[in-house]
Amino acid sequence: MDPHIAELLGIDLDDPEVQRENAAIDRDMRLIETLVGIRRQRGLTQSDVAERMGRSQPAVSDFERLGGDPHLSTIRRYALAIGVDVFHSVSVPEEVSQTSSTPAKIEVCGWESARPQTSATASISLTRAAP
Question: How far lies 36's CA from each of 21, 51, 58, in Å?
């Protein structure tokens, strides 16, 4: 965020919570940019992807527009339509994981097939922080 705009809005860019939120937004945008880049590398048009997703081309265009906020299910359908998998990882801040029974890191890894007759497989890994 532009520092001048942040100042006008009363947002403290040095606040750790604001920095975490901005980092999360950046990761979301990079995920969408990466998926769109893969679509283009594979020579797929927005219409190709829309057909595979069972959506309209304008819906795919909206998904690809920066600043959107797609549902996780839409990200998954888009990824499957371009032939890739998206994996999820949850990291718990160190101070929280050390004071609770919450694992320090949770990774959800799985894959799905675009063919309905093939079953999906998933695994979940939980890691505790060292005391």
Answer: 23, 16, 15
